[in-house]
Each structure stands twice: as C-alpha cells, then as structure tokens.
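Quick start: read one record
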Amino acid sequence: MGATSFTRLVRAFSLAAAIGAGGAAGAQPALRGVPESKPQIQLSFAPAVRQAAPAVVNVYGSRVDRRQHAAMEDFMRRFFGEGAPGGPEGFQGRGQRSLGSGVVVDPGGLVVTNHHVVEGMSEVKVALADRREFEAAIVLSDPRTDLAVLKVKNAPQLSAVEFGDSEALQVGDLVLAIGNPFGVGQTVTHGIVSALARTQVGITDYQFFIQTDAAINPGNSGGALVDTGGRLVGINTAIFSRSGGSHGIGFAIPSSMVRAVVESARDGAKTVRRPWLGARLQNVAPDIAESIGLERPAGALVASVQEKSPAEEAGLKRGDLILAVAGKDVDTPESFGYRFSLQGTSGKTELTVMRNGERKLVPIRLTTPPETRPREPVKVRARSPLSGATFVNMSPAVADELQLDIGSEGVAVTEVEPNSPAMRLGFQKGDILIAVNREKVKSSKDVDRLARSGASFWEITINRAGQVLTTVQRG
C-alpha cells in the first residue's frame, strides 16, 4: 500500500466527528454512516479532544509501604508487647508514589479516578492539563466498582466533562481514550467499541465493561473514554496485556455506573449506596436453559432467598429465573448486579422473572441492606493464628458488601494484614470464621477472647464460599 493510499485509509477511519461535531450539544443522537465526500474524510477528532481534554487530569500522591517491615513489627510485638515500635510512632516504611489519571466531572472540583490509583494514599494531588497543581481529598473510594471520587481543595471553577450515555453505545462506535500520565502530559488514542457488557473480566464486583481497542497505556487508568462529541462514556480502568503495553484490548467502566458513584459522593455518603435484593444468584447451565425452553443460557437463577428481604417480600422463590431489570436484559448474575445497582435505593423497580415456563413482572422494593447488628470490628493482636485479621459481626449489609450468604453462622473477615500469622495460615477477606477449638464463634468479641486463650494447639473452622474447611496448628 502506497503512502497516499495509507493516508486516505487513516483519514477514512478517523471520520472523527463527521457526526460528532454536529451532535456535540447532545440535542440529538449522532447518525451513523460512512464518509461520502472528501471534506468528510478530512474531518478531525480535534473538536472532541478540545472539549474533553481540559477535564482530564493527573492524579498522584504517596503511600506508606509497610510490607518490608511487617516481619520486624511482628517480632517487636511478640517480645515487647503492643506498645513496641512498629505502630504509627514506630517503623513508618518507605514512601511510594502512585500515578494515574482522573476526570473532572463537576466544576466545583469533583474528580473521578480508579480506586486502585488512590488506594492506600496518605496524600493526593491533582495536576490539571495546564500544569496547575492542587491538593485533593478522597471523598469516596469504592473497591467494588474500582471507582474513587476526589475533591480538589481551594481550586477555582474547573473545566468539567459532560456525561454521555453509555447505554446508547453500540459495537463499532468510535471512541477516544484520553489520559494524563505524569511526566508525559496528556495522551489521546482512538479506536472503536469492540464489545459491550463484558462480565467475565475479574476486575470488580460489578463487572459490566466497555471493551475498546483504543490504546490504554500505563498511567492512563482513571482517564476518560469519550464519544465523538467529547462526552464521557466511560472511565478507563484496565488492559489485557502480557507485556504491560496495549494489545488492543482495554476495558472501561460505563458512565452510567460512574454517575451513580458520583451522586453518592455529592450526597455526602462515605460509601456507595446500593439497593439490596436479598437473594443469592447463580449462572444458568445449558441443560437447565434447555429444560425451561430457552434457546441459550441467559438470566440469573435464584439459588436462595433471605428472610425479611426485598426478594422475599416480592415473592421470589428458589428456581426463579431473572431475565431483565427495568426492561433491560441480563445474561448473568454479574450483569444483574450491574443493572440492579443503577436502580437507586428508594421506590420500586420491576424484574422480569420466568417461573414454570411463564414470564411475569415482579415489582421489588428498593432499599439499602440494613445493619441489623453492629459490626463491632475486632483486629486480633494476641499471639495466635488469628493475629492480623479483622473480624466483624454478620448482617445483611456485611453480607451484601462481601457477597456472602446471610444465613451463614459466624463472623466475617474484612481485612488480613500482609505477612501476618492470619495471612500465613491462609485467611482471606470474605472468609467466615465458624469455630475456634470447637467452640462456635457468635460475635467478634468471641474472637478476641478466644485469641487470648494461649492455647497450645488451634483447631480453626471457616466457611469459604459455602465450603467448610478445618485446620489444626500448634500454638
């Protein structure tokens, strides 16, 4: 292919906003079509970039890395007690800098980025596209969506991006990925939407990603995925790569989910408010799909229903198949979780349910999962295999947060300290501690008492994803 032909091909692919320029105001949906004239082929993405790029910022800061000193801290505590150096006044670890991108979504200074960009940061700063820098506070950081909202301190009115409609995206639509990795300046790449509703990616609890071949490189996490009108349709969050560079498979969190997280932050919430279903769901096996008359496996199968939950109130039963939320089809429990989480936490919504071969609409009340019992977190420090783990009492809120079965007995693990005895034993976040030395654990206070018993051997029983496991260890 000659240079001239290649140039024409590039221009044809960059039809840029033959469409987007006219629809930048968002009054009408953009028409899709191929270029019909030379002027159309010579159009550029520049107007869309000019509109969105000022809102794309760099997010950086520092965190304390305590992993190198964890073994020494444990040694000091064992021999000199809890007041030994190693806490906040002792070994402080070495500082690490974290670099990523972010997007201004409110002129008053709200910035959206990825949770993994700011996780563990002790201080955060935001560098604007014009190189001005401001300190920022983490208003809300949500690992389940991998989104975080920052508030820029003492900043003037900022350029904010306009939200687009990620629900209107189609495979083949042109998109731009804009990032601001520190030390490089802003980067812009373009491509198409390769797939929608990707749910088997393994990045967040609410898996429902936009897949694009627009290059998303290191440092661009938290940056903007925009349409040809310069409107935000996603937050770039991950790439599929074995080398660290772009292989043409990138994933972005849809703007509909981003908007829901931002609204929680605007309302002053420290965590994202999500509606509570109160039922455990599972995938539909091919043989089950065939037996109930479906052409292919689809929907989310109800495996169990919790007492006094919205699902029970609505009359959902084990074996029901949920096919849609508010008229939007769902293919998996993950896509159900995404669709349901966007319905808010007040009023009602409708589920399309198949039962005994018949479809029916089921109204369901929208509410947050209750804290029917105080969490009373206990971080075990006493010398035992439980040391370094944090345990909380079970409740619908805890079960929903950790994706556990509320009917389970015991207390839940919410955190495991790196290099701690609990981590070496194999404890994981989401484990449910059932018994210690054959004594049932009914509350987090029980854990603290049992850990201080000074036993010469330990028999520990946990529930992990429905499987009961027991281990025995010498003291």
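Residues 81 and 222 are 42 Å apart (CA to CA).
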